[in-house]
Write the structure tokens for this entry.
Amino acid sequence: MKIMIRIKNLSSCLLASFTVTFSSYINVAKASPYVSADFISQSQLNLKPAISYVDLAKVKQISPSNYKYVKSFVAAEFVAEFVQSENRLEKRKFLESEVNVNCNDINSVKILQNRYFKNGKLIKTEKLNKVIRHSEANPLKEANLLVCRLFNPASSQELKSGFYSLGSSSSTRIAIQGNRICYEELGRLARTVASVVRDPRYLSLYKLESVEKKGWSKEPFYLIQLTSNELHYGPLIALGSKQVTSSWENSKEIEQCLNSNQVFWYFQEYLPN
């Protein structure tokens, strides 16, 4: 089911207090194996501020709760331009860390070795076998959580019904009725409602079943419940996050989605005068 409605009078919209975000425009396509994780203001090696990306293709199980994975670091000044493809990330990374995490202790990680890059080429490898702990200056938790949620059955987390927001920019509702899951996003200029399914590749990973974007790259739109009060959403390589917020009245479209057993997609755009 696909519906599109355009409302010409923006001033009459109740959603005028919200600002538009890219996640109002959505599609399904092949995903990058990289998933964005921690923003590091000062890394463990006193390098420049960076954002880390977990390479899902290189995660290996060492024991029932222990996993080895690889993190790539990209300079923070490049984050504003968005790393939107695997090729761009590979060219921009300056550090790659091979690490071990025990899913029973997500607040620490063992760095096995670091590989340093310049202009996409390896220039140095350093073996460490060093354990570091999560802290505000050295955030590790998000990357560890992603690996454990996606690969470790004991750490998997089902999507939770609720309401989530990112300040005043957008609000999201996850609604669940039996085995049926539906997603609704409210932005200042658009509203999206879509049915949600599990992604078959990883634990705890969900995606919008059918989506259409306007003016954005054709990336899948994913949902991951990393903690009970925080929802991660968007393309894996550019995940955003929203916190639990207060509820709003049910829309007729999300009720239609919940009561349907077919692919559901609804888009409503609010056009300025």
